């Protein structure tokens, strides 16, 4: 068997994996206009996007006393038989982390800028990243509502009255509450409160229902996220990341299950489940939105749906609850709208860390990220962390690498004899392979001994690949000099060129240690060029890792080869 076959297979596997990730995109994202904080200061009602109405002359889901409130709530949240343009006023909200816009139509969270994240990571002082947006093509809003079997309840399309038009979380304050009021028939009044907290991306929504009428009122609370399939800045260039919905459900007392359904799945079939505890989410690269029962209430109906108009819904409907005359009751839910900061997510709700999607190698990726986080606490530079984790991985696999390079060093001794066999059996490949196998057997040498260590390291590389790709902590993180964002490609392609040069010298070093036929030599000559061009479009953090891995690999190979040569000389003298 050719002595370079398995290393080439290993390189092919890694390259195939990267190519699959790079070219999996089915269509390009639609461009969208830039937004900044000023966009939220004086919004125009003409910019409002139409939202589904609760009822329609074409719909059979008109609320009635016979319709269970939970079913009617879901109908109000999802029906698309007709549409109307939201005409509510806009309320500006600013905290230490976000600038948000709340509409008096249903108290909908219709726009949100994340103050600590730039839209363009190469321009850290430019416009902020906009997660929520009520404009096409990247429509993404958070809605809540109440419904009753009698229809006397404000869903997300009803008009509320705001107490103020502007809210600012002042220095020294930890909480900010946006208060809206709605007055219905028969003495039903609703006070809707959206609560923001310093240092948090959570928004708690409370509906305080007061029944001043003469009859009991029965209703249910629902909460949902509605968005289009596109996501602004959803992934790095030439890199496919998950963009879709997710549901996290409690199956048993201490057993949960996390499932993902992309938008194509929902086009084929809607998902509806009733269970205790859990949440649903809209997930994209680095950021996501989730809606959760505020108190983990029981018997909620969760749904993931296609609205059949290019938009999708992820939400839940709570159980019916009664409010007797003269009494009040509070319904509540929570939204999380922000980045996938792993250290914060678990404190928000169980399972939210699953939105950081490391795939099947999560068991390797999570501890790897934990180690990197500890390193960052000391060096405060993610580029240095990548170098340190690469060094740590190399040290961890030193024994395997030593076996690999010892095998290559021993192969070098057989180079002249293998070359002779190739020349002797140039016209009969079968006899040549048999002669080489006889040689290996006679000399008690396994040519595959150096391949297994290389294959074992591939899962570790892929796990680190996902850590570098999925971790929002690296978004906009500078390294040094011209590398000011490790999550985007090198603007001057210096790192890819350095990687190509390093792979060229590594190839030359390997050629000295391994006998190969002319065809293999030609293939190896193209490898550095192929990787250089391919990695030119990858995030700088990934290229930095691969470059350091190559350089450290060469250093290990030189050290081990000299060590083997010294051992052989010592044996010869003895």
Could you name the key traits of this structure?
single chain; 574 residues; alpha+beta; 2 domains; nine-stranded antiparallel beta sheet; six-stranded antiparallel beta sheet; 13 helices; 22 strands
Please provide a brief summary of the model:
By secondary structure, the chain is of the alpha+beta class. The protein has helices at residues 5-22, 69-78, 263-268, 342-348, 362-379, 382-396, 398-413, 415-424, 429-442, 451-470, 494-513, 518-535, 540-573; strands spanning 51-52, 83-84, 90-94, 98-103, 109-118, 128-132, 140-148, 161-162, 166-168, 175-183, 188-197, 202-211, 217-228, 244-252, 255-262, 271-275, 278-283, 287-293, 300-306, 311-317, 321-323, 328-339.
Provide structural commentary.
- With 574 residues, the chain is α+β, with helices and mostly antiparallel strands.
- It folds into two domains: 5-22 and 365-573, no CATH class; 62-357, Beta-galactosidase, Chain A, domain 5 (Distorted Sandwich).
- It contains 13 helices and 22 strands.
- The chain has a nine-stranded antiparallel sheet. Strands 7, 13, 16, 19, 20 and 21 form a six-stranded antiparallel sheet that branches.
- A hairpin with a 4-residue loop joins strand 11 (188-197) and strand 12 (202-211).
- It is elongated, with a radius of gyration of 30 Å.
- Mean pLDDT is 76; it is low at 1-10, 17-71 and 78-86.
């Amino acid at each position: 068997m050719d002595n370079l076959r398995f290393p080439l297979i290993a390189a092919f596997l890694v390259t195939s994996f990267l190519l699959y990730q790079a070219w999996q995109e089915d269509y390009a994202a639609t461009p969208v206009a830039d937004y900044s904080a000023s966009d939220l200061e004086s919004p125009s009602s003409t910019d409002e996007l139409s939202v589904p109405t609760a009822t329609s002359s074409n719909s059979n889901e008109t609320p009635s006393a016979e319709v269970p409130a939970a079913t009617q709530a879901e109908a109000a949240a999802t029906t698309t038989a007709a549409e109307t343009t939201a005409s509510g006023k806009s309320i500006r909200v600013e905290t230490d982390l976000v600038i948000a816009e709340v509409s008096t139509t249903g108290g909908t969270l219709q726009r949100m800028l994340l103050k600590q994240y730039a839209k363009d990571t190469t321009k850290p002082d430019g416009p902020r990243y906009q997660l929520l947006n009520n404009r096409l093509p990247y429509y993404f809003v958070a809605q809540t509502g109440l419904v009753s079997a009698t229809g006397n309840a404000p869903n997300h399309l009803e008009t509320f009255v705001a107490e103020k038009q502007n809210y600012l979380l002042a220095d020294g304050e930890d909480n900010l509450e946006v208060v809206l009021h709605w007055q219905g028939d028969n003495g039903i009044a609703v006070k809707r409160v959206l609560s923001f907290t310093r240092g948090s991306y959570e928004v708690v929504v409370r509906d305080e229902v007061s029944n001043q009428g003469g009859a009991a009122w029965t209703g249910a609370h629902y909460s949902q996220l509605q968005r289009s399939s596109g996501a602004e800045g959803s992934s790095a260039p030439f890199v496919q990341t998950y963009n879709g919905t997710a549901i996290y459900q409690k199956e048993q007392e201490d057993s949960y299950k996390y499932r993902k359904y992309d938008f194509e799945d929902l086009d084929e079939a809607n998902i509806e489940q009733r269970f205790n505890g859990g949440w649903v989410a809209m997930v994209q690269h680095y950021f996501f939105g989730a809606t959760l029962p505020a108190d983990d209430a029981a018997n909620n109906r969760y749904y993931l749906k296609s609205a059949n108009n290019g938009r999708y819904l992820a939400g839940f409907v709570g159980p019916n609850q009664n409010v007797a005359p003269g009494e009040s009751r509070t319904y509540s839910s929570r939204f999380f709208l922000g980045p996938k900061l792993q250290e914060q997510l678990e404190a928000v709700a169980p399972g939210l860390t699953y939105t950081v999607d490391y795939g099947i190698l999560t068991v390797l990726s999570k501890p790897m990220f934990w180690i990197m986080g500890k390193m960052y606490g000391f060096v405060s530079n993610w580029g240095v962390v990548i170098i340190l984790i690469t060094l740590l991985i190399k040290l961890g696999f030193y024994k395997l690498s030593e076996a690999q390079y010892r095998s290559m060093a021993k192969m070098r001794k057989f180079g002249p004899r293998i070359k002779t066999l190739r020349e002797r059996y140039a016209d009969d490949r079968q006899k040549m392979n048999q002669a080489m196998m006889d040689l290996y057997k006679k000399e008690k040498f396994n040519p595959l001994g150096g391949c297994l260590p290389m294959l074992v390291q591939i899962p570790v590389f892929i796990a680190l690949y996902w850590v570098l790709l999925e971790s929002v902590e690296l978004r906009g993180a500078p390294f040094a000099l011209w590398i000011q964002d490790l999550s985007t490609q090198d603007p001057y392609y210096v790192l890819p060129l350095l990687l190509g040069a390093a792979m060229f010298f590594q190839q030359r070093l390997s050629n000295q240690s391994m006998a190969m036929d002319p065809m293999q030599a030609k293939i190896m000559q193209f490898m550095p060029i192929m990787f250089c061009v391919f990695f030119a479009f990858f995030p700088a953090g990934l290229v930095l890792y691969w470059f350091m891995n190559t350089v450290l690999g060469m250093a290990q190979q030189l050290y081990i080869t000299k060590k083997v040569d010294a051992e052989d000389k010592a044996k010869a003298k003895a």
